[in-house]
Each structure stands twice: as C-alpha cells, then as structure tokens.
C-alpha cells in the first residue's frame, strides 16, 4: 500500500523527520525556505497532510487549491494561522500542540517580566557600549517584582502557570481577566482574583498578555488601554503580535506613560514597528517563549504524532475541530 504523502513546511528536528518517514512519503524543507502563499499552494499539490508552523497560513484559498489535503498539524499551541471554520467546511482536520509547552512558556513569560522590570537588557547595552564608569544610587533602578501586583490578561494554561510562579514564588498579588472566571479550585491554586479588564489595567504593576489572537483580541491593548495603566507599570506580551497596537505602545514607552515593556511577539513579525527599536525601555526577543530544545522537540513530536494518529487510527491526539467523517 502506498504511504500517504505529507509536506513538512519548515525545517524540523531530523529525528522527527525520520519518524515521519516511517509512515509517510515526506517532502521536507530542511533548507527552511519561507514560502509565499502561492509557493505553499504549489508545494501542497498532491499532499494529503501538512506539518505546519505559525508561518503557514491555511485559509479558504489554500484549501480550495488543495482539495486532496486532509490534515494540517500545527507545531504551535497558537493556531491563528489556521482558518479553522474553513478547514472544517473543507473536511480538513486541524491540530495544535497544547500542554507540552505550558511550563516552558510560563518560565519565559516570567523571565521577560523580570528582565523588563529590572531593566536587564537596557543596562547590558549600556555596559557593552562602554558607558559604565561608576556605580550610582539610582542607576537602572527598576520596579519591584516580589510583593507587587501581577495582572494577567488571558488565563489559560500558560497564564495559570505564570500566576503560580508569581503568587507562590514571588509573593505577588495576582489578578486576572479572561472571557470567563476560573473555577474556585483553580483560582485558589493560582491565588488569583478575577477582575474587570479596566481594574486589571489600572491596578497591575506588571501586566502579562497570554490571550489567543482573534478578531476580538486585535489591539486589545491600544492607546486607550495603555492610558489606564500606571506610569510605573510594565507590560509583557508573549501571546501574539496584533494583540498590542505596537505603534501606540512605542509612543507610550517614549512618553513614559508606562515604565517599560517586554515583547516576544510583534505585529507583522518578523518585521518590527521601527519605533520599538528606538525606545530604550523595551526588552525585545524573537518569538522564543517556547524555545527550549526539549520543549520544541516535544512540540514537533506531538505534531508528528497527530499526523500519524490521523492516518493510522483516524484520529489526532490534539485536534482543533471535529469533522463530519474523519476518515483518512
Ligand atoms: C506557539 O506554540 O503558539 C508559539 O507561539 C510558537 O509559535
């Protein structure tokens, strides 16, 4: 029997490719070329499955041009690159990689909060530039982390992980806003209190964004929201570009209406709003919140197992949609 054909759209761990090759005829992209949408459609011709990352958009146009496609397995927990309703309508299974990255991403969220509050990259740049000539009492004096108020917008698994770190490790008061409040047991475990978005913005000393990107969360933090924050507050975005209006944020940072920001994701990344590169009070990282080797390997294996599960048993481990007839 012929093996199903799959496209692995970006470079991936060689051992994961080897595992996929046991089950599939694999077209890989180990040169890691970033394809245009038209090139992606061309590469997907004849492929029954796709191993994707956040950089491949699977929408109605791709689905219409690739009628043989049956599953797209995203190596990411976020799936804003998928038009899931269009995939469901086209009978294409969608899957993502939840859980395996939760703690690693929460670690990074907390690291970015610390680096932002304590001005770590700004002070390192100063030192590297040879500007450090003497100690002084207020040099790079930042914001207190322990005992301060941690605000979390989007209280899913990763948000809860950050809340636990703040509450249990740093004695922070944790407040959060979410589409719905957590159950009482989870709130108690996270030592977190549900508040309105307005109270969150006005009260948090450190605000971390961990909500999924959607049309509803586009620019959830813009000029109006930034204006509600304390001038001493910091903002961290490890969620998705587009949740923050980066132009408005750069202006708030320049005018110091908030103290500092830590950003791992950007509108239109890998391009950045140019103003973000000119303000000193921002820590910038290139979308690496889940990037430990162990976690990225776990994510790649889960995406691969979703493809294997679908084609061998008719079901993915972590599907995002339910199909009328999910038969490979
Ligand atoms: C995720 O898993 O969604 C991360 O942002 C990596 O894309």
Count of helical regions? 12
Estimate nothing, just give the exact number of structural domains.
Answer: 2
Distance, first to last CA? 14 Å
Strand order of the largest sheet: 8-7-6-9-10-11-12
Gyration radius, rounded: 21 Å
CATH level 1 name of the largest domain: Alpha Beta
Strand content: 5-15%
The H-level CATH homologous superfamily of the largest domain, spelled out, is: NAD(P)-binding Rossmann-like Domain
What's the quaternary structure here? single chain
Structural class: alpha/beta
Quick one: biggest sheet? 7 strands, parallel
Overall 3D shape: globular
Bound molecules: (2R)-2,3-dihydroxypropanoic acid
- Percent in helix: 25-40%
Secondary-structure element sequence? Answer: EHEHEHEHEHHEHEHEHEHEHEEH
Poorly predicted parts = none
CATH names the topology of the largest domain as: Rossmann fold
CATH-level-2 architecture of the largest domain: 3-Layer(aba) Sandwich
Mean of all residue-level pLDDT scores: 97
- Total DSSP E strands: 12
